[in-house]
């Protein structure tokens, strides 16, 4: 049986069970199905038309083919390959696809850049939030890596645990899913503080008023102290 592939990426190349591979004859998802009959903005339609070359279901993970317990609300995980015409991942298109399915979806984005085939993993997940705040979902995209080095590790006793581990692999580059939301929040805080550090450094260099320079420096010192504390936990 011929199995599905996205460029050179397949369930086998990702290290998934052979039983999880999708037959090639059933794998293709025409781009038009995501915007032809569903009202979408012109911008989102252009993401599908211009940025995405093809969409392929590479495999389906479930309790049977992963040897895990059949419990929990999540029953399956789709592994979807998205061949891109650009190195910029169209997160709004991935968001649109993910919202149409109740199952978890791990996107394997594929791009051939300067003759080198690369992959970036992406998932839609609830952002870490505080109690009492409205939950918001977002698409997280990992770093580009050579396709030949892209593998997925299936850690967990249930599909939900495997899903959490795949989220950790996509977002943080680690298969360890313990305290995942806290680690994601810390990573986001570090990125925000680094951006703030860069901005305040420029503001301090431009400021001519001594009082203003001192105020900016105080903010910069506070940001750097917080940043150093968070980076020490990484």
UniProtKB/TrEMBL annotation:
<protein>
    <submittedName>
        <fullName>DUF4391 domain-containing protein</fullName>
    </submittedName>
</protein>
<dbReference type="Pfam" id="PF14335">
    <property type="entry name" value="DUF4391"/>
</dbReference>
<dbReference type="InterPro" id="IPR025503">
    <property type="entry name" value="DUF4391"/>
</dbReference>
């Amino acid at each position: 049986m011929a199995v599905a592939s996205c460029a050179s990426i397949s369930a086998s190349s990702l290290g998934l069970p052979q039983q999880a591979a999708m037959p090639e004859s059933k794998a293709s998802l025409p781009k038009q199905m995501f915007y032809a009959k569903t009202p979408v903005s012109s911008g989102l339609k252009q993401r599908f038309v211009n940025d995405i070359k093809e969409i392929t279901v590479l495999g389906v993970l479930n309790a049977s083919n992963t040897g895990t317990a059949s419990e929990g609300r999540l029953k399956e995980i789709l592994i979807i390959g998205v061949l891109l015409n650009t190195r910029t991942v169209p997160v709004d298109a991935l968001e649109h696809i993910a919202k149409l399915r109740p199952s978890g979806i791990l996107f394997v984005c594929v791009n051939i850049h300067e003759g080198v085939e690369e992959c970036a993993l992406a998932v839609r997940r609830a952002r870490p939030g505080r109690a009492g705040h409205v939950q918001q979902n977002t698409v997280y995209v990992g770093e580009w890596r050579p396709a030949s080095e892209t593998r997925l590790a299936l850690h967990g006793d249930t599909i939900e645990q495997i899903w959490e581990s795949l989220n950790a692999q996509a977002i943080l580059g680690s298969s360890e899913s313990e305290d995942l939301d806290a680690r994601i929040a810390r990573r986001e805080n570090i990125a925000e503080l680094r951006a703030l550090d860069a901005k305040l450094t420029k503001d301090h260099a431009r400021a001519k008023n001594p009082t203003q320079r001192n105020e900016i420096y105080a903010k910069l010192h506070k940001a750097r102290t917080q940043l150093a504390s968070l980076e020490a936990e990484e």
